[in-house]
Amino acid sequence: MKINNANILITGGTLGIGHATAKLLIEKGANVAITGRDEKRTHKAARELGALPIAADVANPEDVKRTIKEFMNEYGRLDVLINNAGIGLSKRVEELTVEDFEKVYRVNVFGAAMMAAQAAKIFKKQNYGNIINIGSTAATNGYEGGSVYASSKAAIRSMTQSWQKELRKHNVRVTLINPSEVTTAFGKPDREERDSQPNKLRGEEIAWAIKGALEIDDRGFIPELAVWATNPF
């Protein structure tokens, strides 16, 4: 697809991968809206980027519906949904609670699914669209303390595969991007970005992977793509 003049919605676009992706796609001529739970931070990021701000929580089904409505009122057409919003926590198995799973799954799994459900209705009417899901290499390679987060990303992977089978006949491309560790604010209570490290991935590397996946001619798509740091040690 052509990035220039495409209408793109990015959840969790105020920081990290979402922010870097919005910046790159806007530079390439796209019309971009970003969502974020913190209204002040969302509007500040949007001003810096030149994006449309939508203060919304993907874990709230009513916010999901409002997000799509505000986007369509502004642009009239949706070309790309990027399911980027995500949270995580690390706990050993003996410390796990149901509340831990509910908190993370409401954002990482249920939120992404409800955003995709709304987008799919539009894409089917258009007979065209793109969904990019941000997963994780943790989905296929768990780690100590990763029961909640890794399993949430495994769910994203499974949903992506299901949506691919459902939506291909409607000319909708669904792609999963699996980053390894990225130096962002992810997992930090203060939501401040971590300092970039020369041997670690940044949001920019994931943004370029997303851009590359989208720019493939519409006759083809990348089902799943992993991005690793070359030498993180």
From TrEMBL:
InterPro entries: KR_dom, NAD(P)-bd_dom_sf, Sc_DH/Rdtase_CS, SDR_fam, SDR_oxidoreductase. Residues 6-180 form the Ketoreductase domain. It comes from the Bacteria. Pfam families: adh_short. Its EC number is 1.-.-.-. GO terms for molecular function: oxidoreductase activity. It is an enzyme of class 1 (oxidoreductase). Keywords: Oxidoreductase. The keyword Transcription does not apply. The keyword Oxidoreductase applies. Belongs to the short-chain dehydrogenases/reductases (SDR) family. This is SDR family oxidoreductase. It comes from Pontibacter locisalis.
